[in-house]
Backbone:
């Protein structure tokens, strides 16, 4: 097994020549700025994150600005980035930091892991990149790099495999230039040690990589055991009042699109007119449904049947508040919505 000092030297030499040094979170890498970038980069590519990061930081330049904001605005700036629990956790953690830590991020790996949405790897990345603490990280790119380098068999989601990868991460994390090293191993995984076609000829670690020596790079790490993704079918009501406003409902705080605004859903088998009358006291005309729209999540598919519904007579008024709102497309108020809901809303507005 390669000497840790040699491993770090080769990684850093490669970074000096080829690493990504112009990323926006590399400029003035405070713990807060690094934290936001690390959360955004979870399961999301750098090119996608950059414009979101710049807009987010322009609006929320520090922890207090984020904590003082309404969740709706935070989710609105996150819309389209996906995995919305990340945004909810950021907002929640910012308020905890203001209430318990004076609006500052504690430079302690154990305390950071107590905050919502921050695990060991994210905490390590914050401290390594922003405070030069020699903390190991193990994001998806680094897991793949180390699994191949050490030929660690098995799926990284298994505790045995995870433990083996953490041992390698701890072994190779240097004390000197730890911020550059941390960025370098992430860059190597993203740019060179890619999932399907690793560029081993350009990798500084190829000479010590066990998987490369065996010619089995793509066998590591083992994929997650496959399971057929279930399908959930719902009817989304595109419910328009006589003045053209659209009824939106805030989703529960946890689960799919948690805390975001969406169209009300009703079961496919119910009579929509009866359902609207019983639930809201609305007399409606139900129009022909649009084509089914499928949106795939990491663990299931959501088949949405958008169904335009016109209010003919409004009896009991649907009260605005925490759960429902009549939305005017000309209203500049920002509402956090998932991208598929935004697209349906735009199509509905353009139709009239």
Residues:
């Amino acid at each position: 097994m390669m000497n840790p000092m040699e491993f770090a030297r080769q990684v850093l030499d490669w970074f000096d020549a080829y690493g990504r040094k112009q990323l926006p979170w590399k400029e003035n890498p405070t713990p807060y700025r690094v934290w936001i970038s690390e959360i955004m980069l979870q399961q999301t590519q750098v090119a996608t994150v950059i414009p979101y990061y710049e807009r987010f930081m322009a609006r929320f330049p520090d922890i207090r600005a984020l904590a003082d904001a309404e969740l709706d605005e935070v989710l609105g700036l996150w819309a389209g980035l996906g995995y919305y629990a990340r945004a909810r956790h950021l907002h929640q953690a910012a308020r905890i930091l203001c209430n318990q830590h004076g609006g500052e991020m504690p430079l302690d790996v154990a305390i950071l892991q107590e905050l919502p949405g921050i695990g060991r790897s994210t905490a390590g990345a914050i401290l390594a990149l922003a405070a030069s603490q020699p903390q190991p990280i193990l994001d998806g790119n680094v897991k793949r790099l180390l699994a191949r380098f050490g030929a660690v068999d098995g799926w990284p989601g298994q505790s045995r495999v995870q433990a083996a990868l953490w041992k390698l991460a701890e072994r190779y994390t240097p004390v000197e230039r730890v911020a550059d090293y941390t960025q370098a191993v992430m860059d190597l995984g993203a740019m060179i040690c890619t999932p399907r076609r690793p560029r081993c000829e350009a990798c500084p670690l190829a000479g010590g990589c066990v998987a490369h020596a065996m010619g089995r790079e793509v066998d590591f790490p083992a994929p997650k055991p496959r399971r057929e993704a279930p399908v959930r079918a719902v009817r989304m009501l595109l419910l328009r009042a006589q003045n053209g406003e659209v009824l939106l409902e805030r989703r529960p705080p946890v689960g799919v699109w948690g805390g975001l605004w969406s169209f009300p859903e009703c079961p496919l088998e119910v009579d929509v007119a009866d359902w609207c009358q019983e639930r809201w006291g609305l007399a409606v005309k139900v129009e022909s449904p649009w084509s089914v729209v499928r949106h795939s999540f990491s663990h299931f598919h959501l088949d949405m049947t958008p169904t335009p519904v016109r209010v003919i007579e409004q009896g009991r008024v649907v009260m605005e508040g925490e759960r429902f709102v009549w939305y005017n497309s000309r209203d500049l108020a920002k509402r956090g919505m998932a991208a598929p809901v935004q697209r349906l809303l735009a199509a509905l507005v353009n139709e009239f």
